[in-house]
Amino acid sequence: MTTYRKYLKNQTLPGMSEMETDQMKGLPLPPIQKPHPEGGCLVDLVSPAEFTLGCLPLIDAIRGRESRRKYTGEPLSLEELSFLLWATQGVRELIRNGLVTLRTVPSGGGMHPFETYLLVNRVEGVEPGIYRYLAIEHKLYREVAGEIQGIERIGEICNGQHFVGKGAVVFIWAVRPYRTEWRYGEDSLKDILISVGHICQNLYLACESIGAGTCATVAYQQEPLDDLIGVDGDEEIALYLAPVGKVAKS
Ligand SMILES: Cc1cc2nc3c(=O)[nH]c(=O)nc-3n(C[C@H](O)[C@H](O)[C@H](O)COP(=O)(O)O)c2cc1C
Questions:
Q1: Is the CB of 66 under 6 A from ligand 1?
Q2: Under-50 pLDDT residues of the chain
Q3: What is the predicted pLDDT for the residue at 186?
Q4: Closest ligand 1 atom to the C-alpha of 200?
């Protein structure tokens, strides 16, 4: 039971302090965003400069936040989805010749090793399917068209937590670990796990401010979730997910 605790500590591996990372070796920074094939379907999102929502005082969002597992059948608007994506992974600025991003959330070493996949179920103006958020362009890239099967399967993949598939959309965060390993080598675990928590916390607060709710979800089966979003489970690994839906007004 206690062997795993070493992973909670820094410098977990012997000789870690002498380890030479790829950054130290002068190897190039890995891409900050997974490339996508040319000619695919892109969906324009509402620009953060045009948001008309999200004005709930922060104190009320923090006070009201709770994990919400019951959603109305109402769709999210495109602006609401755009706002949630921006709040969780939005790019504020590109620095270092466009090789590094500053975002609306912090990330260890500024490496932002995550990709956001969406199972879209009910979003106005967006066909159901599996999408990926292109944070730099602030657009969606359609990975799988018309794949509502994903929504049907996700509750099973989450060990029978069927509320997950009832969301208007399900956020699934995958990690591309090399982005952090480039900088921190085999000492990247804590950075990655802590960083993804910041993303989900912003999702909770952003949901509160638009009359929606979410529930952080870690109980899922790894391989089926990797398969669903089309990642190999090694270079890219599904890590955390959260359904989002409108909630009844209290
Ligand atoms: C890392 C993490 C994993 C979680 N996994 C699940 C989950 O798989 N299923 C679920 O229903 N809730 C899950 N939750 C939500 C917790 O059960 C919830 O935060 C806790 O009961 C406290 O309730 P509150 O968020 O409403 O304050 C998770 C929360 C966190 C932070």
A1: yes
A2: none
A3: 87
A4: 31
Rounded-to-integer distance, Cα 133 and Cα 140, Å:
5
Nearest protein Cα to ligand 1, atom 12: 217
Reference 117, options 223, 225, 229; nearest CA is: 229
Q: Is the CB of 218 under 6 A from ligand 1?
A: yes
For residues 124 and 128, what is the distance between their CA atoms, to the nearest angstrom?
10
Strand partners, 83: none
Distance 215 CA to ligand 1 centre (A): 6
Q: What pLDDT sits at residue 158?
A: 98
pLDDT at 12: 56
215 Cβ closer than 6 Å to some ligand 1 atom: yes
pLDDT at 145: 78
Name the H helices within 65-169: 78-89, 149-157
pTM for this entry: 0.96
What DSSP element (H or E) covers 191? helix 189-208
Structure tokens at 3: 């062997």
Residue 215: per-residue pLDDT:
98
